[in-house]
User: Fold these one by one.
Assistant:
Number 1:
Amino acid sequence: MAKEGEKGEWKEFIWNPRTREFLGRTASSWGLILLFYLIFYIFLAGLFALTMYVMLQTLDDHKPTWQDRLSTPGMVIRPKADETFEIVYDIQKTETWDLYAQALDKFLAPYNNSIQVQKNDECVPDQYYKQEDSGEVKNNPKRSCQFNRTMLEECSGIYDQHYGYQEGKPCIIIKLNRVIGMLPGKNGNAPYVTCGAKVQEDTDKIGELMYFPPNGTFNLMYYPYYGKKAQVNYSQPLVAIKFLNVTHNQDVNIECKINADNIPIGSERDKFAGRVSFKLRINTKN
Ligand SMILES: *[C@@H]1O[C@H](CO)[C@@H](O)[C@H](O)[C@H]1NC(C)=O
Ligand SMILES: *[C@@H]1O[C@H](CO)[C@@H](O)[C@H](O)[C@H]1NC(C)=O
Ligand SMILES: *[C@@H]1O[C@H](CO)[C@@H](O)[C@H](O)[C@H]1NC(C)=O
Ligand SMILES: *[C@@H]1O[C@H](CO)[C@@H](O)[C@H](O)[C@H]1NC(C)=O
Ligand SMILES: *[C@@H]1O[C@H](CO)[C@@H](O)[C@H](O)[C@H]1NC(C)=O
């Protein structure tokens, strides 16, 4: 009997026909609760949207609000070897160096003169190409300067399709990572790249080097860089190095670095800043 009573109580709790209550509440009570939560959540969503909106207003689409880590630029070499930074090949085995030449072809394709002329300006060399915003008025989009592939001359892949690899005089291309707002060089002196032996015993093995553009400079007109969004067509300037007489059949450890009064090299914070090293080995006998 007690059991039946309990069952009846439950039934009544779910739906009480006398008081017309569902789960202990009348329809209007339920309605009020739903209405309350509806308004409450709409209010929360509105608050969230408002906060987001205000925050996004303070962000500039064309400039990162936070930039810290990249204040000293790293350098990278092309052709991109594997992670170990090695360029090792055998002159007699075409397949061992053809990959490097192909990688350079691909890397340099956007620098074709025709493309550069279409996308970018012919700037006044040896001075920064500043396009500042005047207060709230954004000077966007910003133009960029031409870096013609032909400026790499013998390392452009145009006059010598094999970039010298076939003759044992390979070209290496260097670029400096992009840093927004960086003005490298001082007093009108452009930053330039120099390469040398990483270790003393390799000094005699490096042989003569040739730099393109002359003196291995990154012209000042390619700076400052304003960011991907503001400067859509930006082409990073390059420096090519041709190894004219590197010793064959031996590992040669090379280090290239940027020379600019205001770019610290290998700082404590980032030992790769402003320099890059790699191994070059050209085999000529099986
Ligand atoms: C760039 O120029 C090279 C040689 O002049 C040509 O073979 C290549 O197809 C060009 N690439 C593009 C993307 O126009
Ligand atoms: C790039 O090449 C084009 C055509 O080859 C030439 O008209 C232009 O002046 C060159 N630009 C620079 C900066 O040398
Ligand atoms: C970028 O290059 C395209 C052509 O590829 C050109 O139409 C456009 O005007 C350029 N934009 C800027 C901001 O230089
Ligand atoms: C290269 O450097 C030398 C010596 O510093 C200088 O005389 C020459 O004008 C430079 N060449 C170019 C093209 O900047
Ligand atoms: C190339 O380097 C070797 C030593 O490694 C040297 O004997 C030779 O004279 C150099 N050749 C040229 C053209 O500089």
Note: The pocket of 2-acetamido-2-deoxy-beta-D-glucopyranose (ligand 1) is lined by residues 109, 112, 158 (CB under 6 Å).
Number 2:
Amino acid sequence: MATLTLGSTIGFSHSSSSSDISAYCIPSSTTRFCFSSIILSPLKLQKRTSRRRARALIAVKMAAQAFQEVLPPALTSVSEPPPIFDGTTRLYISYTCPYAQRVWITRNCKGLQNKIQLVPINLQDRPSWYKEKVYPPNKVPALEHNNEVKGESLDLIKYIDSNFEGPSLFPDEPGKREFAEELINYVNSFTGSVVSSFKGDGNEADVAFDYIESALSKYGDGPFFLGQFSLVDIAYAPFIERFRPFLLEVKTYDITAGRPKLAAWIEEMNKIKGYQQTRRDPQEHVDSYKKRFLSRL
Ligand SMILES: N[C@@H](CCC(=O)N[C@@H](CS)C(=O)NCC(=O)O)C(=O)O
């Protein structure tokens, strides 16, 4: 039984045999909610599922809510390196990088702000020690953990979910696991298709966003890709956060028009505290994408 301390008020504990977020127990001083495997009638099962879902979402919200973190300034070429490999777990990010944002959201949603230290890097004025001593590919994100440094955002979100405490962000159910893998495997094609559409009038992105709309329609037990909030939402959110305002302003293309599931997903994502802490001003994204993509067209 691992216990995670969130501030001084909330603790989550979970059975190490289960990685299902809905199997988490949320103890208070007098009450403990656990779920056993007794056989239930369909109606009871439905009620129980919605209670579990509600508690699962509460767990994610609380995990992030307990912390209102003061974000450290980004390190530059004149900054000293942290004491690397001293046993501290560090997540190297850039505040503006969507890949790093995925891992940052995962850390927040699991309530790991005390366990994984954020080390923001200024990519425009990168310290030389980052490549030399921390992560030779010289990219963010990178995770320093157990005397090793690992990269690649999609691997890192899974690694953090499996190797740290906190609410599980990957489903147990085989059907959902398979769909989760499919969606995670698709995310690079999705972002690639949308970025290619910047050359046209925006409508070229229809197929990619229609895929998202249809994926969001698969499970009716919640507004997220797998019904409940998961790593899949985390994989897509940083990019949709950028694509939406950019396509709207530059191509007058509203990605949510005629896509009610996507509109609802964005609304629900924006309520997730662990994500809110990582979001940036939409206008900042638009300006940065204009500089990056419009000059190349
Ligand atoms: N495939 C990597 C991509 C990471 C990546 O490209 N990060 C960018 C910042 S958004 C970076 O570090 N760029 C620095 C560089 O390429 O020199 C991942 O998913 O983690």
Note: The first strand starts at residue 2 and ends at 6.
